[in-house]
Structures are given as structure tokens and as C-alpha cells.
Amino acid sequence: PSWHMSNGAVHERICGLKLMEAVSVPINAASADLQFRFLQPSDVEQVKELSKECFPINYPESWFVEITSSPKLCSLAAVRASNIVGMIVIEVKPMSACNQEDSDLLSYASRKDAQVAYILSLGVSRENRRLGIGKMIY
Fold first, then answer.
1. With CB atoms 3.0 to 4.6 Å apart as the test, which of 37, 61, 118, 119 could cross-link to 22 if both were Cys?
2. CA-to-CA dists, residue 62 to 68, 117, 122, angstroms
3. Nearest CA among 29, 77, 69, 71 for reference residue 51
4. 114-134 core/surface letters (b: 16 or more CB in 10 A; e: else)
5. pLDDT tens string 62-103
6. What's the rounded Cα separation, in Å, for the pair 136 and 78?
7. Distances (CA, A) of 88 to 15, 27, 29
8. What is the mean pLDDT of residues 27-36?
């Protein structure tokens, strides 16, 4: 898809990943038809449905637009038969930009100029849980 091509370099820089096309990663029989790709603007409705199922938060519309289109976030989807069955949203930023309590937790292991990743959301649909999808996407 053109979205991957246009934003692949940005996401490679932020996420450390290079996904120009959807990637199939068969780990076991349950995941044989699973693919991973970046979230894209056309995913907003599916992401809303998955979020309702997974999270006790009513996110504003702006959240869905941001996680499916912002180059500042690394947002990946686990896809089965064209349906998003899992997702992870990660923000990567310098440790110096972290709030104090997070910096204190990480300071023993990292320099202040180190990049850290925050997992903002990680969810898998009910019917796809306990199949290792959360581990694979993480």
C-alpha cells in the first residue's frame, strides 16, 4: 500500500522497523494467517471497535486519527483476514523528555540522551487472545 511506502522511512527511524509491506510471521498454527503492518488512516473504524473491546477508556476521535497517522508514534496492527485483531501503539522519545517518575525508574539503566519507548496501548480482540499475538506484536 502507498501509505507504507510514503511513511516507511519515518517509521523506520522512529520505530526501528522497516515494514514496507505487510509481514507474515507464522509462529504456530494459530498464527499462520496473521500479518503485521503499520496502522493507517483507513483503519480508524476497526481501531475504534478493537479499543471499545479492549480498553475501559472512551478515547476521543483525535486519538484514533493520531495513532493511525502520526509519524511521532509507532502503531502496529496484527491483521487476520483483513481484520485488525490486535494493535500496539508506542511513543519513542528521549529520556530527557520523560516525566520525573519515569526517568527515576529508568535512570539506573540509561543515559539521559537515551531513547525510551512507552507502550501507550496494547490490545488483542477477545476471540484472538491466548494465541500469543500480544507477545508477537510486543
1. 37
2. 10, 21, 18
3. 77
4. eebeeeebbbbbeebeebebb
5. 999 999 999 889 999 999 999 999 999 999 888 777 777 776
6. 9
7. 12, 18, 22
8. 69
Residue among 15, 1, 116 at smallest CA distance from 72: 15
116: left (phi over 0), alpha (psi -120 to 50) or beta: beta
Q: Please tell me whether residue 27 adopts helix, strand or coil conformation.
A: coil
HSE-CB of 2 using CA atoms within 13 angstroms = 2
pLDDT category of residue 126 using cuts at 50, 70 and 90: very high
What was the pLDDT predicted at 66?
Answer: 95
- For residues 42 and 79, what is the distance between their CA atoms, to the nearest angstrom? 14
C-alpha cell of residue 46: 476497526
